[in-house]
Write a structure and sequence with these properties.
Helix content: 10-25%
Largest sheet: 9 strands, mixed
Oligomer: single chain
CATH architecture: 4-Layer Sandwich
Number of strands: 21
CATH topology: Double-stranded beta-helix
Number of helices: 8
Shape: globular
Number of domains: 1
Bound molecules: 2-oxoglutaric acid, fe (ii) ion
Radius of gyration: 20 Å
Distance between the termini: 23 Å
Order of helices and strands: EEEHEHEEEEEEEEHHEHHEEEEHEEEEH
Low-confidence stretches: 1-47
CATH superfamily: Clavaminate synthase-like
Length: 351
């Protein structure tokens, strides 16, 4: 069985090898389900430079070199990136030189952008770009210092969930030549597939409640975070929501386990005690080392991940004297879901 995130037989997938992708020659034959999509005219791809995609060879992850994200994207390129996200779960683009506005413009190709409910640490004049950092200026924090420092899926607490988070690593801590502050992922396609038939049957048709406050308070009460309590207004703007526990992945159409320890609080179709036991099992199951992959940052990397098929954790292994500075843009799943949370048809999404 392939170790990659999805089993899409396309020609850009050559396990553990380096492959030049010529966008000029890309057409529907590259993707098994592309016949459902609208394709840009061949002329539109003219002049697009080559880039290389190198799978990590691990359960998740691929690196893309030679792709300049600061220039306008063509439809075919956006499509290729979306396919790569579905297939590898986590992709990184090396050596990117992007302003905050540039990150926002690139990210906007993939869906509507979130303005985070915490409403703090935004790039000046660009609320869609958040700053993740442990740095201070004149004693004042310049960014959120402990974002994502426990296992979660972005925005599962929201009616409109997240599709992809786009992070630009501007300053990365390094100690003794080793990068710190890795971003760690776990593959929810593999987690689902390796559940027993009995568990799959039990979870079939179930939904889970996801609550923004769970993660926020875990950081405050268990991790010593200096985050203030959520205001009544912040709470009211993010009431708990329900999502199916097993999701058909909108790009690969495989089943993934859509649960995460950060936000999932309850399996709605079970008694409280039964739900507690089931969630504890699922959280332990989904974090097994065999499903995991870590992105080791290099300055200039743009890291994108698929929030449907992965969960993640920001590894807090660096000190306040080891600066980390990241620009972040969250792409919501508006390309794949309707405002009421129901999935769009494959015809509508083109995937
Ligand atoms: O800083 C990181 O590595 C990831 C933070 C995170 O979880 C997020 O931005 O959603
Ligand atoms: Fe996150």
């Amino acid at each position: 069985m392939s170790k990659s995130h999805a089993n899409i037989p396309d020609k850009i997938t050559i396990a553990a090898t380096r492959k030049v992708i010529n966008m000029n020659s890309m057409n529907s034959s590259h993707y098994s389900n592309a016949s459902r999509s609208t394709h840009p005219s061949p002329g539109k791809a003219q002049g697009t430079p080559n880039w290389t995609l190198t799978p990590t060879g691990q359960i998740l992850g691929a690196r893309i070199d030679g792709f300049d994200l600061s220039r306008p994207m063509q439809d075919l390129e956006v499509r290729a990136i979306i396919m790569a996200l579905g297939q590898y779960g986590v992709i990184s683009f090396s050596k990117q030189n992007l302003s905050a506005q540039g990150l926002k413009d690139f990210s906007a190709n993939f869906g509507e952008l979130e303005i985070n409910v915490a409403n703090m640490y935004q790039a000046p004049g660009i609320p869609e770009v958040m700053i993740l950092s442990n740095m201070k200026k004149d004693g004042v924090a310049v960014g959120i210092a402990d974002a994502g420092q426990d296992w979660h899926t972005d925005m599962s607490y929201s009616r409109m969930i997240a599709f992809s988070n786009v992070l630009h690593g501007i300053q990365i801590p390094v100690r003794d030549g080793v990068s710190l502050g890795n971003t760690e992922f776990s593959c929810m396609k593999s987690a689902y597939q390796s559940l027993s038939d009995k568990w799959k049957e039990t979870l079939d048709g179930c939904t889970a409640t996801h609550d923004f406050e769970k993660f926020w308070n875990k950081m405050r009460f268990e991790k010593g975070s200096t985050r203030p309590p959520l205001t009544a207004q912040q709470k009211a703007s993010k009431p708990p929501v329900n999502h199916p526990l097993v999701m058909e992945h909108p790009i690969t159409h495989e089943k993934v386990l859509y649960a995460n320890p950060g936000y999932a609080t309850r399996i709605n179709e079970m008694e409280q005690s039964q739900s507690d036991v089931a969630l504890a099992h699922l959280f332990e199951h989904q974090l097994q080392p065999r499903f995991r992959y870590q992105h080791v940052w290099q300055e200039g990397d743009v890291l994108m991940w698929d929030n449907f098929g992965t969960i993640h954790n920001a590894v807090a292994d660096y000190t306040p004297d080891e600066p980390r500075y990241i620009h972040r843009c969250q792409v919501m799943a508006t390309r794949f879901f309707n405002a009421d949370g129901t999935p769009k048809t494959r015809q509508a999404t083109g995937f």
